[in-house]
C-alpha cells in the first residue's frame, strides 16, 4: 500500500511540476474578465475564480497538449499551432472561438474587446493576413465606426497604434486615411484622423507627409477651437508629441480660457517632457499668469517651480519704495509659501533663506505699524552695520543680521553690554547662542581695542567673563586686560 501511495505521489508531483512550468509561460490561472459584445461569433463564458480550479488545470493541460503536438507532429504542425493560438485567444478574451467565420470578422471582435498587441499579431500570423488586407480592414473599420457617436471611445489612439503596427507599409495606410477618409470626416473626427495619419507618416519616416499633416492641423485648428473642440486639440497635442510645431494649440486653448484641459489631461502627469513644455510655455508667453502656473506645478508635483515663482514675486514686492503694510503682509505670505515648497523639494538652504527674509519683512511691518520711519529692507552692508550698532533690542538685531548673513555678533554684544551697559542684550544673546572659549577671546580683543574702560564698563566686562567655565582662560584674559583675577 505504501509503494502504491509513493507511486501516486511521484506521478502527482511530476504532473504539478509540468503544470507549473506551463502556468509560468501562459498565465491563464488568474481571473479572466468577460468582455460583453453584441456579435454572435464569440460566446461569453463565466468569469473564472482567482484560484486554480479543476477547469484551470484542464485548460493548462489542453494548452500543453496543443504545444506538444505542434512540436512533435510530422504533419499538421501548423494546424496544431493554430489550434493552440486560438485557444489562448479564447481564454484571454473569455469567449468560445468559432472557426467558420471570416478572419476579418474575428479581428474586428478582437479590436472591440481591446485585445493585446501580441494577441493581434498571433492572430494575423496564423490566419496569414497580408499587409494589404490589414490596411483595407483598418480603413473599413474606421469608416464604419466613424458613423457612430462613440468613435473616439471605440477606437482610441492606443488601439489604433496596435492595428497600425500590424501593417508593414504604413505610408500607404496614411495615404488612404488622408485621401479617402479625411475629406468626408465630420468636425469632431478631423483631428482624430489627422492624428492617425501623423502616426503612420512618422512611423514610415515620411517627413513630407508628416509636414503636410502638421500644416493641415495648423490651418484647421482656429476654426475647431472656435467651434468648441479644444479637448480634441489638447489630445492631439499630447499624442503627436510635436511640441515645437504645435505651440499654437497652447495659444488657442489659452485664448479660449481652457488651459485647465492641459493641467488635468491624463497624459500630462505621466511624461516629464509634457510638463516641461507646458511650464516653459507659461513662463515665456504668460509670465504674469501665476494661477495657471501654480495649478500646473501643483498637478505635476513641481514644488521647486512654485517655490521659485513665489520667491521671485516676494523679492519684487520687498524691493518697492515705501511699500504699504498690506503689500508687506502679502510679501510675507509669498516668502512663507516659497519656504514651504522648498522644504517639500528638500531644498533646505533655500527654505532657511526664505524664512529669514519673511522675518525681516515681518519686522518691517512692526516698524510701519509703530509709525516709525526706520527702514530695514534692501540695506547695504554699511547700513546694516550702522543698524546693528545702534539697536538696543537683541532679537530685532538678530533678525536683521540673519537676513543679511551677518554671522559674528560679538562686536555688537561688546558694545551694547559693556559700553552701553545693556546687560539684557548679553542675556538674550546667551539664550540663543552657545558661548564657548572663542566668544570670550573675541570679547578680550574688543576690550583691548577699546583702550580705557570706565568703572561701569569694567564691571560689565567682569560679569561677562565670569560666565567662562575655563579657569585657565579666565586668568589669561584677566592678565591681558589687567583685571583683578579675584573678581573674575
Give structural notes:
The protein is mainly alpha-helical and about 500 residues long. It has helices at about 1-25, 55-70, 75-95, 105-110, 115-125, 130-145, 150-155, 155-165, 170-180, 185-205, 205-225, 230-240, 245-255, 260-265, 270-285, 290-300, 305-320, 325-345, 350-370, 380-390, 395-405, 410-420, 425-430, 435-450, 455-465, 470-480; strands spanning about 45, 95. Strands 1-2 form a two-stranded antiparallel sheet. α2 (about 55-70) runs antiparallel to α3, α10 (about 185-205) runs antiparallel to α11 and α17 runs antiparallel to α18 (about 325-345).
In short:
By secondary structure, this protein is mainly alpha-helical. It has 26 helices and 2 strands.
Secondary-structure map:
Elements: H1 2-25, E1 43-44, H2 54-72, H3 77-93, E2 95-96, H4 103-112, H5 117-126, H6 131-145, H7 151-154, H8 157-164, H9 170-181, H10 187-203, H11 207-226, H12 230-240, H13 247-255, H14 260-263, H15 272-285, H16 290-300, H17 303-318, H18 325-344, H19 348-369, H20 381-390, H21 394-403, H22 410-419, H23 423-432, H24 437-449, H25 455-465, H26 471-481
Antiparallel strand pairs: 1-2
Helix pairs in contact: 2-3, 3-5, 6-9, 8-10, 9-10, 10-11, 10-12, 11-13, 12-13, 15-16, 16-17, 17-18, 18-19, 19-21, 22-23, 22-25, 24-26
- Quick one: overall form? elongated
Terminus-to-terminus distance: 102 Å
The largest sheet has its strands arranged as 1-2
Major sheet: 2 strands, antiparallel
What are the segments in which pLDDT stays under 50 over at least 5 consecutive residues?
Answer: 22-64
**H and E string:** HEHHEHHHHHHHHHHHHHHHHHHHHHHH
